[in-house]
Amino acid sequence: MTKEAGDAEIGCRVENGGPSIPEITVLWITAGLGCDGDTIAMTGASSPSLEDLVLGNLPGLPKVNFHNPVLSPSCGEDFLKPYRQAAEGKLDPFILVVEGSIPNEENKKEGYWAGFGTDLVSGQPITTCEWIDKLAPHAWGVLAAGTCATYGGIHAMEGNPTGCMGLADYLGWKWKSKADVPIVCVPGCPVQPDNFMEVLLYLIRQASGQAPMIPLDEQLRPTWLFSATVHEGCDRGGYYEQGDFANELGSPKCIVHEGCWGPVVKCNVAKRGWMGGVGGCPNVGGVCIACTMPGFPDKYIPFLEEPPGAHMSSAAIQMYGKTVKTLRAFTISGGNKEPEWRKRTKKKSEGETGDQE
Amino acid sequence: MSTAGTSKIVEMSWDPITRIVGSLGIYTKIDFQNRKVMECHTTSSIFRGYSVFMRGKDPKDAHFITSRICGICGDNHATCAVYAQNMAFGIKPPHIAEWIINLAEASEYMFDHNLFQDNLVGVDFCEQMVKETNPGVFNKAEKTEAPGASIHGYKTIADIMRSLNPFQGEFYREALQMSRLSREMYCLMGGRHVHPSTLYPGGVGTVPSVQLFTEYQSRLMRYIDFVKRVVPLHDDLFNFFYEALPGYEQVGNRRILLGCWGSFQDPDVCDFKYENMNKWGQAMFVTPGIVVDGKLLTTDLVDINLGMRILLGHSFYEDWQSSETFVKTDPLGNPIDQRHPWNQTTHPKPQKRSFDDKYTWVMSPRWFDKSSGQHLALDTGGGPLARFWVTALAGKVDLGYVKATGQSVKIRLPKTMHQPEMEFEWKIPRWSNTLERNRARSYFQAYAAAAALHFLEKGFAEVYAGRIRTITPYQVPEEAIGCGFHEAVRGVLSHHVVIRDRKIANYHPYPPTPWNASPRDSFGTPGPYEDAVQGLPLFEENGPEKFKGIDIMRTVRSFDPCLPCGVHMYLGPGKELQVHHAPMFGIQNG
Question: CATH for A20-225, among 3.10.620.30, 3.40.50.700, 3.40.50.150, 3.40.50.2300?
């Protein structure tokens, strides 16, 4: 099948402005060292959904030609055609999405750690590194999806044989695209679905002249998603403030003693939930293992032991927290009682207004 | 170029194979004159090294780490890892934690089969694809009424095919939306999808409450309303292919060699002790077992465990035959083979790909059958086919909503918004082939939903009784071994761990895809994909010039490949080979 999802008659008209380009291509490579979990997460997004993007259900979108191996109707060379065209500079503009960490193909004598498609001359796999080398210089922008692609992630754990790393480690932290856009990193293991789709939508709007340069922090994360900590958005933060900590999992209280890294991790999941506002991490009883952080996982293992900093800070809050909790208990107790006039009383003498019987 | 006495054999490959999870390539030799696949190799082009970098790590973290193996069924790994941790740490979680895990896993089956069947597999049966590969079949579909139209709403088979067109098709879009609803159900129990946050050795961190189970239940009933249309829709579609293409039962057909490692623990029986593993394995709500040539060989998890062998032959690794033996005997005193996952040492050796020698990162798991002395290349039937086949034959499961009869499995679904109460019956088919793997997938969506109704009742009962503690405390032992057996969405899943000095000394997960996507082993036996594709008759109407390989693609996808790695398909018109007599290709590389 040669027809890709975006080939349909689609696109919304907007009266004023509108996209400065008629169409844009998204080339997604899942052949880093990953698990395809970011692609699967992306299919779970609803704000916006994949259909919204591909069918043009949002005002002002250019036509989006979306290519991803997990969803593509076509296979093999048919599927690789736009990738090969882009590598030769014959497809413009496109956004390159990379999923999975980038192996070091130079740490061994021969063979490959990660490949994608076959070299038609040698019959050997084309390595993922070769694809990135060829595609990145032609891309309007490069988007790293998930913690593996952004910073290395679980597969870059100490003792790994592949020497893998994040995209910025591979291309350089100062790398910029031909449109002068830095690498955009959306970490998360996997990415929170809406976080990712929202950023992809932003980049499409920027590429089509409808949004300013994407605001990124030093770790190349979009600032509106990653400036707050897990703790700042966690609905269990109130327990922390009152010095009220769970002493085992399954409790609704704050779980820092159980190993939660939430107070020192940049991530919005405790606030946003995982899908459709449902789920998350410490807000629903799962310790934050810092899966969005560049230091993940090595700086946070063993996961199920109390972070050293949490011990000190949670001890410091005990006195204040317990006092405040006690005082609040009095106020709650007062507020738990209705005002005294809300009850059935006998009718007073005639002429006076009283409760209706 | 064909001359008398020779056949025209064309090399065809598809790399990457899309609409699966991970990296897979399929390399074939096809005889277009006789419309048959002569030879097939599968290759996976990615290596990550879990069993290497997990050495020395804290065993408490194993489920967090191994979840990352897979991006569509990572939670199956986390669950299986927790089972292995429970055994190694000598603990049994509270009942309510097991019901929560069962509910989480049920929603994973509901989600994953749904997304895979109707957004990935479905495209192989959609209008656009069938028109391109078998226009004659599409014309017939236009004229064929769908027997289940009154339930699923599509008048003809062609209407069903149109509804499966990517993004444009109504059912394609509906399935995509349902896959979100079922993932919300997962998130209620497991916190996050696909790498859960609330699963732990000893139980869960999820807070059980009336609210939790009610939120799950409301979504479940909407899913059940949907699945009542899914099953007849796929029955109509797949039955039509048998009818429209006589002989289609041979596509992807292979000897019945099915393995299922069981799913959904019964906390009344399961204590995670290896010594009692046969007993609690038999109580699982999907029965573990092995079916060979239609006969149930065993349902004993200890037998299953002891028979596991990891063979090399054509994979990019050095052997571990002379490496350390971690486990000499199991806790029952049975000897453990050096080729068993407990004793495997992974020595990766990247090298050039050569189909005569080493050609993939996948190893060759086999099951050693004592009675025949053979190393069986079991497949999982994509998951559901083996689960149903074993459960049906074993006749043990009876949940009210689900009942195994000895030759079938009955599934009863209560009244929902748009549909009355319905009963489906999955019956043992005549073939272990492409269409039956796919059909079983739809039925298993119903099975998982029906099982979830039972687990919900149990969960509510625990909450009503005030038994809401979700975790059993534990200490990591100085030395221990453990194993977990489970069903990942696409089939058998095992985790084997060896603990020394309170650290992981050895860890080997065996997901379904190494079983299914394995290369020829050291005995020359091809892996199941290779076996199912070799000898496959071609029904596609296109010649080599426009060949899509649709029958091959349908076959590979029927196994629900999930290599976080991958397979790729074909390029261009292909290279023509001069071949003398075509047959006997298959096993020459042994």
Answer: 3.40.50.700
